[in-house]
Every structure is written in structure tokens, then in C-alpha cells.
């Protein structure tokens, strides 16, 4: 058996060499483009990569087994095709060595089976395949390392973005919570005057734009000063909390705004509510506070007085709107308290 075979055992004629050369020239570029285009779009899993690479490299190593002559064994097109396979997949060096090594053995076995001879296994062929395997291992390791680093970097970036997003969401939630806390009365838990003033301006704009009714009730606890002076401020605070709860429960709609305006005075802003709605709600509020049966030092029990007004965009601004409701409350207090009155033009 000769130590060095000068020509291919499969391509033993000029015609065969020319055909095989033309085949690589035309098939090679098309195969490369096909690999680069389709492989990244195919399902990405380790089993698929190994099977695909094994089948493809078996075919390529048959080419190399056929191209034993030095001028064709390291043909650039063939090397580019194998390089493309390595660059579009992500495998460890061990996997590359196993896949390409076993495929070379498969290719050589195929040639030996076809020719029924072993003299084709020349040093030239072995060195050629060894060079290719070394080249693939280098490319594969470099590609695997770069892709791993890119993956780690991408994961770190994604994690950092998630952390930033969570921090921004927490900050936004804290802003909302702070805004709510700033808009709440610390004693009763109702909205405070600052929030009510903002809400009043917003609802007036909305009612004016939509030409929808808007109602306002101003509520005052009758003779509340006597409660503080006689029973103490702690008892007075308890009374304020109980009244606030009763008012809030009676105004059941989410669009209603119940606020503590100051001291023993409360306000209720009622979108989409006309005079009849104000009258009905005022009666319910009077009854709700009466049902609390809170003791009072100078009268049978704690009561409230209510003044109301429906917004008229043609004759009122926000200040006049509130003044009309407050004036109605003043008339109720002047006429005996524990009642309500709705302002009329």
C-alpha cells in the first residue's frame, strides 16, 4: 500500500476531476447562501443542531475523501462551506470534535466501501482532515465563546432593564401613594380640602364640556363646638370619624368625592347629579348620621345640617357654586338645623 497517493481514488480521470470541480464551483456558493439563510431560521435546539451537522459534514467529508490531490483537498469553497456550518451553530469544542471526527470516519469508510481498497487513506488525506478539524475547533470555540459572552451580556442587560423598570414602577407607585396621602385627611381618611379644590375645578370643566349636571353638598355638624368643649377633643375626633364613615358609606358611587373641608365641615361633590338627586342624597345623609345615635351634650343626639347647589355653567363659576351651597347651609342653620336646603336661582 503506497504511503502517498498522488491523485484521488474516486476521481481518477481528467473528466471526473473537471466535473467535480465544476460541481463545487456552482454548488458551493448556492449551498453556502442556503446554509446562511435557512439554518438560523430553523428550530434551535441542541438535538437538531447535532443531527443537522452530522448529516451535512458526512456529505462534505465524502468530498474531501474524494479530493486527495493537494490542489483540490483544501479547496476554498469546501472550506468555506464547513466554516459556514460552524459559524451558524453554537456548539462546544467537544461536540464539534465528536461530530466532525465521526463524520470524517464515515466519509472515509464510504470511500473505502465504494472502492474496496485502503490505499486512498494517504497521509495527505489525514493531514488535510486534521487541518480542517483544527480549523473548525478554533472557529467553534471562538464562536461559542463569543456567543456565550453575548448571551451573558444580553441577560445582564435584560436583568438591568427589568430592575430599572421595576424601580421606575415602584417610584411611580410611591408618587401615586404620596399624592393620595397628600390628598387625604389624616384624621378621617377622607379627601382633604386641597384635593377637593382640584377635583372641583376638574368636574366643573367636565360638566361644562359635556353639559352634564353637577351637584355639591356642604355639610356641617350641628353644635360640634359643644362636643369638644364639654366631652373633650378626643371624643370630638371619634365623632368626626364616625360621621365621616357614615357619609362615605352613603355616597356609594366611585365618581362621588367626599372630603373634609375643615373642622366639622364636610363637602360632597356629585357628578351627574341634579337637584332631585341632591335632595334624595341629602335626606339619606341626614338619616345615616341620625342612625349613629351619637350622644350630644346639649341635644338628644348628634345631627348635621346640609346645604346644596346644582352647578349652572351660565351663571356660576367655582367660587359662586360653592358660595351658593354654603349660603343654603347657613339658612338651614339659621332655621333650626338638622335639615337640608338646595339652592335655587
TrEMBL record:
Keywords linked to the UniProt accession: Membrane, Transmembrane, Transmembrane helix
Residue span, GGDEF domain: 212-345
Reactions the enzyme catalyzes: 2 GTP = 3',3'-c-di-GMP + 2 diphosphate
Top-level EC class as recorded in UniProt: transferase
Transmembrane helix recorded as keyword: yes
EC number: 2.7.7.65
A Pfam family reported for this protein in Swiss-Prot or TrEMBL: GGDEF
InterPro entries (alphabetical): Diguanylate_Cyclase, GGDEF_dom, Nucleotide_cyclase, Rev_trsase/Diguanyl_cyclase
GO MF terms held by the record: diguanylate cyclase activity
Transmembrane feature ranges: 20-39, 51-68, 74-90, 97-114, 120-139
Cofactor dependency: Mg(2+)
Top-rank taxon: Bacteria
PANTHER family on file: DIGUANYLATE CYCLASE DGCM-RELATED, REGULATORY COMPONENTS OF SENSORY TRANSDUCTION SYSTEM
Protein name: diguanylate cyclase
Protein species of origin: Vibrio ezurae NBRC 102218
Amino acid at each position: 500500500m503506497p504511503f502517498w497517493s498522488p491523485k484521488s481514488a474516486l476521481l481518477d480521470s481528467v473528466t471526473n476531476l473537471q466535473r467535480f470541480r465544476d460541481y463545487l464551483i456552482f454548488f458551493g456558493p448556492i449551498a453556502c447562501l442556503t446554509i446562511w439563510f435557512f439554518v438560523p431560521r430553523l428550530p434551535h435546539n441542541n438535538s437538531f443542531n447535532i443531527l443537522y451537522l452530522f448529516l451535512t459534514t458526512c456529505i462534505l467529508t465524502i468530498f474531501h475523501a474524494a479530493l486527495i490531490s493537494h490542489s483540490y483537498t483544501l479547496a476554498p469553497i469546501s472550506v468555506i462551506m464547513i466554516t459556514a456550518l460552524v459559524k451558524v451553530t453554537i456548539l462546544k469544542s467537544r461536540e464539534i470534535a465528536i461530530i466532525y471526527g465521526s463524520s470524517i470516519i464515515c466519509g472515509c469508510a464510504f470511500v473505502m466501501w465504494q472502492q474496496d481498497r485502503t490505499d486512498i487513506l494517504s497521509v495527505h488525506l489525514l493531514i488535510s482532515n486534521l487541518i480542517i478539524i483544527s480549523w473548525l475547533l478554533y472557529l467553534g470555540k471562538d464562536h461559542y465563546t463569543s456567543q456565550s459572552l453575548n448571551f451573558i451580556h444580553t441577560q445582564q442587560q435584560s436583568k438591568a432593564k427589568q430592575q430599572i423598570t421595576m424601580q421606575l414602577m415602584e417610584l411611580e407607585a410611591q408618587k401615586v401613594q404620596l399624592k393620595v396621602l397628600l390628598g387625604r385627611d389624616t384624621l378621617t381618611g377622607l379627601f382633604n380640602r386641597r384635593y377637593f379644590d382640584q377635583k372641583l375645578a376638574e368636574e366643573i370643566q367636565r360638566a361644562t364640556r359635556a353639559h352634564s349636571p353637577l351637584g355639591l353638598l356642604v355639610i356641617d355638624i350641628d353644635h360640634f363646638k359643644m362636643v369638644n368643649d364639654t366631652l373633650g377633643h378626643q371624643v370630638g375626633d371619634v365623632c368626626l370619624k364616625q360621621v365621616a364613615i357614615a357619609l362615605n358609606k352613603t355616597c356609594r358611587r366611585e365618581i362621588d368625592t367626599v372630603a373634609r373641608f375643615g373642622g366639622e365641615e364636610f363637602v360632597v361633590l356629585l357628578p351627574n347629579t341634579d337637584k332631585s338627586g341632591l335632595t334624595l342624597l341629602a335626606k339619606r345623609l341626614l338619616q345615616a348620621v341620625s342612625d349613629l345615635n351619637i350622644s350630644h351634650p346639649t341635644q338628644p343626639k348628634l345631627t348635621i345640617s346640609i346645604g346644596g347647589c346644582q352647578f349652572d355653567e351660565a351663571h356660576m363659576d367655582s367660587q359662586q357654586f360653592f358660595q351658593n351651597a354654603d349660603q343654603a347651609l347657613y339658612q338651614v342653620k339659621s332655621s333650626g338645623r338638622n335639615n337640608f336646603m338646595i339652592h335655587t336661582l
